[in-house]
Design goal:
By secondary structure, this protein is of the alpha/beta class. Helix content is 25%, strand content 19%. The chain contains six helices and nine strands. The protein has helices at residues 6-14, 37-43, 58-61, 69-82, 117-126, 145-151; strands at residues 19-21, 28-31, 52-54, 87-92, 108-112, 129-133, 156-157, 175-179, 184-188. A nine-stranded mixed beta sheet has the order 7-1-2-6-3-5-4-8-9, with helices on both faces. Helix 1 (6-14) runs parallel beside helix 5. It is globular and about 50 Å long. It starts with 5 loop residues before the first helix and ends in a 15-residue tail after the last strand.
Length: 203
């Protein structure tokens, strides 16, 4: 499929199609949360590997998690320090999260706000999207829209405007940290290091 403009991509995403756009880490495949099974099919991805819910702002994402007042205060503190950025927080999922986002364990959801202006601009108009890296399961993440268009002709890819000011993509997936009820368990170490001893634990 030919790469499309930002507005056409937004309309495709709103219509439930799988789309791809750059982020601050690696380019994303993205789709409406209730259509998440489409990404599993496109990537040939095992259902025990959940997707990440990406939003334009942290306020867009909090309705998708459930917490105590104390926990939310801790999580918001971490978000204020590290978002927008390459940190995915795995938190208890609220009823707003479609079970197809995490079929094996729908009790949790990974959430993130990317440090990429184009991505946030798209997400601001589509609402939070189910996302993952753009690659077939088990293969390295693809790094360019051209590569993604060739590998996934059924995916709507963004036409890249090289004049657009943008954050440099690291090429490294985000750090993934899961809340255990008292502290953070690092499931995948990326660029961001959580301070497990003080601020990021709310102590």
């Amino acid at each position: 499929m030919t790469a499309v403009s930002e507005q056409v991509l937004i309309e495709a995403a709103r219509a439930g199609q799988v789309v791809s756009f750059p982020t601050d880490t690696v380019p994303a495949l993205a789709v409406l949360p209730n259509r998440a099974e489409s990404i599993f099919a496109v990537k040939q991805r095992s259902l025990d590997k959940p997707l990440i819910l990406m939003g334009a702002t942290e306020a867009d994402l909090w309705p998708f998690v459930k917490s105590t007042e104390t926990e939310l205060h801790i999580w918001q503190g971490v978000a204020n320090r590290h978002w927008p950025g390459a940190l995915t927080l795995v938190l208890p999922a609220s009823a707003a999260v479609p079970s197809v986002m995490n079929p094996v364990d729908p009790s949790t959801i990974g959430i993130r706000v990317p440090n990429q202006a184009i991505a946030r601009r798209i997400l601001a108009q589509t609402g939070p999207l189910a996302t993952t890296s753009a690659n077939l399961s088990g293969e390295p993440p693809l790094q360019t829209m051209a590569e993604i268009g060739l590998r996934f002709p059924q995916v709507v890819t963004l036409e890249w405007d090289q004049s657009e000011p943008k954050a440099t993509a690291s090429g490294v997936p985000s750090t993934v940290a899961k809340w255990t009820g008292q502290s953070w368990e690092i499931l995948r170490q990326g660029v961001i290091q959580l301070d497990s001893n003080s601020e990021d634990r709310g102590k």
